[in-house]
Amino acid sequence: MKLHLLSDRAGSAAENMATDFLLLQRYPETAVRLRHYGWHRPAFTFGYSQKLAFVRDQLPPEEGFELCRRPTGGGVVDHRDDWTYALVIPRGHVLEEAPATESYRLIHEALAVALGWQGVPAEVKREADEPSAKGAAAAPGVCFQRAERFDVVHARGGAKIAGAAQKRNKHGLLFQGSVARAVVGPKFDWEKFHTDFAATLARLLEVDADAVPWPDWNEDELYGLTEQYASPKWLEYR
User: Fold this and answer.
1) What pLDDT, in 10s, does the model give residues 184-215?
2) Which residues contact 81 (CB under 8 A, 6 or more apart)?
3) Domain coordinates of the chain in residue numbers?
4) What is the pLDDT averaged over residues 91-120?
5) Architecture of domain 2-235 in this structure
6) Which of 89, 124, 144, 197 could cross-link 114 (Cys pair, CB 3.0–4.6 Å)?
7) DSSP classification of residue 76
8) Ramachandran region of residue 157, left (φ > 0), alpha (ψ -120 to 50) or beta?
9) Containing H/E element for 103?
10) Distance CA 122, CA 147 (A)
11) Which of 188, 179, 175 has the alpha carbon at shortest distance from 160?
């Protein structure tokens, strides 16, 4: 098995979500695949199970940004100043078969190591927040407002650096992650980070990393799924 490194692409919020999902559904199940991507316009995404009314209450008052429901869980993510990536692990790999908390922790540990190679004091949060008075911790709402267990945080001050959301199905595991550029700092080399993160993931997954062309998939299917993700029906699913 290999770690396939796909070239950077930018798209609309709906196209980015559709591309990530198709990488899980249609890409040959012989390799792990990693992609970093950008956004054509300012964008927010939110978790598959979140209620749209709650999400809208968390958004800034200004308009001009895109909003899309993700195929994964998690909270509201502001993509206006983040480094966004998707990792797809095919069915049968030991990390795909691990519990969700374990895959979340291990991938974030690899990310923290890559940050550390440029002097960023990053670590994985080990403890969950104390339960509320009602006996349960608050559900994920807005991704970077607070760190959850196994998120990546700054070792000095505890600011959240990276979070992610996951989806498992019969094809494998989709891991969608976001790194906050502002917390990392202005002098950070993001191209080096991309290379370093791929190296730490390859070591974790016990595979070799190779840059590969994009898969030759059905563009009509990508277009159709993008239209679905951009539709009011998908946005208002809950």
Assistant:
1) 999 999 999 999 999 999 999 999 999 999 98
2) 180, 181, 182
3) 2-235
4) 96
5) 2-Layer Sandwich (3.30)
6) 197
7) B
8) left
9) helix 100-116
10) 13
11) 179
